[in-house]
Write a structure and sequence with these properties.
9 helices, single chain, about 75% helix, about 0% strand, about 210 residues, mainly alpha
Amino acid sequence: MSTDKQVREGSREKRAAIIFAARELFARQGVDGVSMDAVAARAGVSKRTVYDYFGDKNRLFLAILSETSDALNASIQRALGQHLPEDGTITTVSGLQEAITALVVELGRTLVGSADYAAAFALVAQRRWREPGSQDDVVTVSAEDALAARVAYFANAGLLDTDDPRTAASHLAALTILLAYNDQPDPATADPERIRQIMISGARAFIRAYATR
């Protein structure tokens, strides 16, 4: 039994190493410009291992998007649970603004400044440029649903004024995360303080637009 456990742990490590290597190489050189040999060499595994785990380059590409989607959604869900709990502890508009500000500042730090997420988004852009109409993407539906549910919760609590929580949640994302990505697209040169200020300003704008009067 202990031997099986060690094998499974080793397999997870190899899978992670392959995805990390492929994401880095694909983003830098383009999917078509990278061979499976190069991915294997960068990951420190055999080419056979890469094929055994992923089958072909397209499945490897899709695995990168899937892993990124899972990590992104998990990060946002954790941050929502920490900063915007549905437990009645946030009872004022000022308290809600403080909580939303803390939420988006954390997301700015963990998402906008992440080279892994930036690489995955670059891969999506590459695929759509080469294959117009491609539906491959980093999927954030569960995080979007969770944020909309939080907006609905605080609307029902009388702190936000909206009958369309999903649109309000989209506005919050646009004023903060999307704006920060647009302003600071390269994690290697991103200014953490600039990202933080964008998040603070965005949270303030959201509250001005949606807080109850």
